Each structure stands twice: as structure tokens, then as C-alpha cells.
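Fig. S4 source data, part A: sequence.
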Amino acid sequence: MSDRVTASGLSIDLSLFDLVREELAPGTGVASEAVWQALADIVADLGPRNRALLARRDELQARLDEWHAAHPGPVEPAAYRAFLQDIGYLVAPGEDFAVSPANVDPEFGRIAGPQLVVPVDNARYALNAANARWGSLYDALYGTDVIAEEGGAKRGAGFNPVRGARVVEYAARFLDEAAPLANASHADVQAYRVSEDGVLEFGLAGGGAAALAQPGQFAGYRRGAGGALEVVLLRNHGLHIELVIDPASPIGSAHPGGLHDVVLEAAVTTIQDCEDSVAAVDAEDKVRVYRNWLGIMRGTLSARVQKGNREVERKLAPDRRYTDPQGGELTLPGRSLLLVRNCGLHMYTDAVTTADGQDIPEGFLDAMLTVLAAKHDLLGNGPLRNSRTGSVYIVKPKLH
């Protein structure tokens, strides 16, 4: 039996109580005592209603089971619909309505991009997913079966130049679709240039040059020491593409224009999961989950990973900075915009119990403490930010 503390009429596991007092609450302007009082108020107000809803769910499930037992075989749609309406499982549609959300980050409001789900109790996985906003197209092609292995293009321990050449060819075809050139192919490019007045030009064999078919797809660039062009940034349907130029690298040296990599903006959002992909029920689980989520919200989470014969430290990726075509500064997020998925209200935990020993819904506890951790992001209590509009994104599972 774990040590417990009583606060606001709740019995709280000591490790969870200490986490709130020593890590989650400091810096938010919310006293730890106020956290437990707020949770106690929620449990007192909504706890009985939640149990009533679960009882209603059980009643509906029993009626469904009875109906299906009495009607084996193919279901007649009209009769089944009438039954569902009769027991209140289906209700008549309500009147049309509209919502006007505010402070929504563009990752939800304007960008249609991939989304990941990751168990937040594993710091390494959580960091990898948060950093998956940007990824190498070259690496993805080289390491998967998108590129066939026939004709000497097998994957192996060392670099296969035949396979590497096919990766470059594939990437050029991708660029021809995503950011086509006017009257040329990306496979023909032998130089990348950005003029002092912000005009992008692609040098071709024989001294010719090409421009983007849609010049507005040029989003920015970055120069390194000595003014050498290092990155050309393109944009397609709101997602960005980096052309990484490094003639001194092994890969870049094999390309006439020094193209070292094509990096894509990929997983623009990620669900940091407290349910489904992770079992986090007791206090020990919860402490690990909330601590990792706090580290992400403060931008300080790290994990040491063994990679071959060396140990590396994983951290949240910094933002990416460029010069836009007009000469101004452009900053893009280096990480996915993160949501947190809390446990459903049909699940109960003994990490916190009522005075008479009843477990409370996990969703109550998750919502209280994940939002408290997210307040650090809203207040800018760390070196990195998640939401740029001042929002917290919570995914609530269905009451399944």
C-alpha cells in the first residue's frame, strides 16, 4: 500500500501529491492546495453524474445485447433503426448551429498534414514524435522499399551508390510535382542561387537558368558562414520543403549542385497519449506521464539513447530560422504541434480517491493535471513554445 496524503477531502498518492507541489504547480500561479480543491469540487459535482451516465450506458448495452440475441442473422435496417430510436440510442437531429473558434494554431486551422500518436510515458518515443515535424526524404527513401533493390540497389551496412543515385532521381521527380520548374526538371539543376534582392534561380547545364513555375512557392533561404547558400525553402499546400545544400558532404559532393538532402515538413501535429497506446492507471504510471508532459510543455524533456557504441541525448528540436524573399526573418516550428489525449471517463483510478475510498474517473485527474502542465507553455516558462496562439489542445476519447 503506497503512502497517501489527505487534501480537500481527497486521498492522494504521496508521489502524485509531491509531483504537483514540487514540479507541476510552481511557476503557474496556481497553489498546489488550489489544485486539489478544484479536483475535489469536480469530483463532487460531476462524479455522480458520470456514474449515472455509465449506468445508462450499461443499460443501453444490455438492451442491445437482448435485441441481437432475439434477432439473429441479417439485420433489417428500418426495424433496427426504430429499435435504436425507441431505446434512446439514436435521437432526432438538433437544429443547425455554428461555432467560431478563436486562437487556433494554423496546424489545425489551415494545414492538412499527417498526425502521429505516441505514448507519453516513454520520453524517447515522445521526443521522437514531437521532432517528427521535419524528416529527411533521402533517408526515408533509402531505408525503405519505396526504392526497389533490383539492379544492384540493395540496402546494406554501408552506403550503396547505386541505391543513392536512385534516391536522388526519385526526389527530383517528387520536386517536379511539388514545386515544378518552368521548362526544366529538378534533375537538370546544377546550381542554386538566391540574388541579393531575393530572387531564386536554378542553374542548368550549359549556363542556362530556370525559375519556379510558381514563384510564390519560394518561401525563404538560409546562408552560412561566408554567405554560402545552405538551404532553399519551398512551400507546397502550406507544407515546407528544404533543399539542403552542402557540396562538401559525401552526398552533396556527388550532386552537381551540391544538394545534400531534401527535408520535408511532415508530422505537423502529434497526440501525446495518456490512453490507448499506453497503460497509465496507477500513481506510478501517472507520475511518469505527467512529468514527461510537463517536460515537453516546458521544452526541457530529454532522454539518453544508446546508438551503436555511443550514447546520445535526445531533446526537443529548436525552431528553424530563415530569411524570407523580402529580406525579413522567417521562423518555422521545429516540432509538431502537440495535443494530449486524456483517459476516458469510463475508467477509474485509485491514484486519487474520495474520503470514503471510491476511485475517481481517470479523465478528471488527467484533465486537471495535463492542463496545469500546459499552463507552463501558455506562460512561456521554458525555452520553446508549443501553441503560438495561447491554446491547449486536449483529445478526449469516446465514452466507449
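Fig. S4 source data, part B ends here. DSSP finds nine helices and 20 strands in the chain.
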